[in-house]
Amino acid sequence: MPDGGYPIPSGETIETPYGSFAFHVAFEAGGGGFGPFGSVDPGIVGGFSDVSGLEAMMEHKVIKVGGRNYGPQLRAGPVTFGTVILKRGIVRAQPLWAWWSLFAGADGKSDGLPTPANRCNLVIALIDPSPAKARTAAVAWRLRNAMPVKFRIGDLNAKGGEVAVEEIHLVHEGLDLVGAAG
C-alpha cells in the first residue's frame, strides 16, 4: 500500500513511468482491410515520429443549490476528444494521402462522399522497454471510428537538412484504454 493508504489495483505497479519515445501506431479495420490500407504493409503506414492530441475532456455542469454556500454541485457533462495529429517522414508509398482522398474527393472517384466503411480504429501503444518484455505494448489507447480531416506537408526548405514530414489530422468518436502490462 502506498503512503496514502490506498491499495494499488491488481496488475498495476508504481514503477518508473514509461518514456514517450517508444510507441507504435496500428490501423485496425473490421473486415480485414479497407480503402488504401487493405494491401499496404502496416510498417509503412505506422512508422510515425510524432503523435499528439490524445486527449478527452468532459464539460462539467454547474448546479447552484439554494442554501449551499460552500460552492456549487458539479455534474458530469458531454465528453469531447482532441484532434489527433500523426507525423511521419514522407515515403514513396502514400496510403495516408489515399485515405484522406477518399474523404476529400481528391481520389477522383468518391466525389467527397465518405462512407463509414472508410473509417477505422487506431491503436497507439507505448512499448515496454524492458528486455524481458520483448518490445510488447505496456499500455495502449484505441481511437474509435477515426476519420482524417486534414493532410499537411511540412515546410520544404532547401537550406535545411531535415526530413520532409507529412501530417494527418484525425477526429474520432471515442478514446479507450485497451491494455496494460501485467
Structure description:
With 182 residues, this protein is mainly beta. The chain has one domain: Pnp Oxidase, Chain A, CATH 2.30.110. 8% of the residues lie in helices and 36% in strands. The protein is built from two helices and eleven strands. The strands form three sheets. Strands 1, 2, 7, 8, 9, 10 and 11 form a seven-stranded antiparallel β-sheet that branches. It has a two-stranded antiparallel ribbon with strand order 3-6. It has a two-stranded antiparallel ribbon with strand order 4-5. The longest helix is centred in the middle third of the chain and has 10 residues. The chain is extended, with a radius of gyration of 21 Å. The model has no long low-confidence stretch (mean pLDDT 79).
Question: Characteristics of this structure?
Answer:
single chain; 182 residues; mainly beta; Pnp Oxidase, Chain A; seven-stranded antiparallel beta sheet; two-stranded antiparallel ribbon; 2 helices
Q: For the report, how would you describe the main beta sheet?
A: 7 strands, antiparallel
List segments where confidence is low: pLDDT < 50 over at least 5 consecutive residues: none
CATH architecture: Roll
- Average pLDDT metric: 79
Structural class: mainly beta
Number of DSSP helical runs: 2
How many domains in all? 1
Shape: extended
How much is the radius of gyration in Å?
A: 21 Å
The H/E string reads: EHEEEEEEHEEEE
The helical percent reads: under 10%
CATH topology label: Pnp Oxidase, Chain A
The top-level CATH class is: Mainly Beta
State which percent range the strand residues make up: 35-45%
The end-to-end span amounts to: 18 Å
Number of strands: 11
